[in-house]
Amino acid sequence: MRAEKITVQDVGKSYNTRHGPVMALDGITFSVAEGEFLCILGPSGCGKTTLLRILAGLEKEFSGWVEVRAAGSQKPINAMVFQENSVFPWMTVFDNVAYGLRMRRVPRELQRTVVQRYLELTGLAAFSRNYPHQLSGGMRQRVSVARAFANDPEILLLDEPFGALDEQNRLLLQQELLRIWELDRKTAVFITHSIDEAIGLGDRILVMTARPGRIKAILPIDLPRPRELVQIKGQPAFVALYQNIWKLLSEEVLRAREKEILPLALAEPGTKDDLYEKTISRG
Ligand SMILES: Nc1ncnc2c1ncn2[C@@H]1O[C@H](COP(=O)(O)OP(=O)(O)OP(=O)(O)O)[C@@H](O)[C@H]1O
Ligand SMILES: [Mg+2]
Is residue 37 part of a domain? Predict the structure, then answer.
């Protein structure tokens, strides 16, 4: 048994809105082992980002208990990769990737070596002097991934990092991520809407229910590593897992739609959050 790196015990979170509290998470308990890659799947609005922000220490008001066991080194506790647009537009690719190292006052020479290494691993070496607006969306996400790895955190937190990419770019970035992750197998929590992606990348998959987000199932992925993402898709273990997860997830997506979005969406237009608030206020 590997040591527990992250422990989450009975975590709950509700947001205060104009119409009273909205419960985003309820009774979330799980752990992530040292070196494990955990993927989280769940319907839109079920509290995935909220959960990741709690793990990152960005969201401090919640009930329950969260512990990330640091090794006591100089490393930062976590680094986060967001869905999109999380690179600094006024910095070059190089400076973006070096950002965390510079903040920690890592010696210049070491900064250069580390940044160069991750630029090469993510195929960005030729673009180090470019600015984000000169890059494609996929390349900008590579910068985010390179920055997170270069910072060498204790744990990696990724919130749908490839969600905005087209399928081919997504596949390429998944493969790159796996290749880099294989080098030192850092503990990772990866949120996605894609069942394919979760099975391809993860050691286990945590499936969440519709809001309030609870844990519906935690499934192990018995596919050997290193993985060739295109090849594993045809394997019986992949297909069986896919069908199992689709059954679990589709129940939740339908439940979420029936419960709150559809009747209101037909009644009057509004944003997703407005709709939730209206549901709450109408009881
Ligand atoms: N700052 C906030 N104030 C009020 N409600 C919020 C706030 N942030 C999130 N929520 C609500 O909490 C619930 C969970 O939001 P969260 O962003 O964590 O979901 P998610 O699973 O990441 O969704 P998605 O898959 O669409 O990214 C939603 O109902 C959302 O509207
Ligand atoms: Mg989210």
Answer: yes
- Ligand 2 centroid to Cα of residue 156, in Å, is 16
Per-residue pLDDT in tens (0 to 9) along the chain, 283 residues: 789 999 999 999 999 999 899 999 999 999 999 999 999 999 999 999 999 999 999 999 999 999 999 887 778 899 989 887 789 999 999 999 999 999 999 999 999 999 999 999 999 999 999 999 999 998 999 999 999 999 999 999 999 999 988 899 899 999 999 999 999 999 999 999 999 999 999 999 999 999 999 999 999 999 999 999 999 999 999 999 999 999 999 999 898 887 765 555 555 555 555 545 544 444 3
Name the residues around ion ligand 2, CB cutoff 5 A.
49
CATH of the domain at 271: 3.40.50.300
177: in domain: no
CA distances from 155 to 36, 49, 68, 81, 119 (A): 10, 16, 8, 11, 20
Pocket of ligand 1 (CB under 6 A): 15, 17, 22, 24, 42, 44-50, 211, 273, 276
Among 17, 41, 50, 80, the mutation site with the greatest number of ligand 1 atoms within 8 A of its Cβ is 50
Please identify which residue in the block is written with the tokens 């160069």.
Answer: 116
CA 38 to chain centre: 9
Q: Which domain, by its residues, includes 10?
A: 1-71+158-166+186-283
Which atom belonging to ligand 1 lies closest to the Cα atom of 160? 27
Pocket mutation for ligand 1, best pick of 14, 18, 46, 261 (most atoms within 8 Å of C-beta) = 46
Token digits for 250? 């589709």
- Three-state DSSP state, 8: strand
- 9 within some domain: yes
Q: How many CB atoms lie within 10 A of CB 81?
A: 24
- Structurally, the chain folds into a number of domains equal to 1
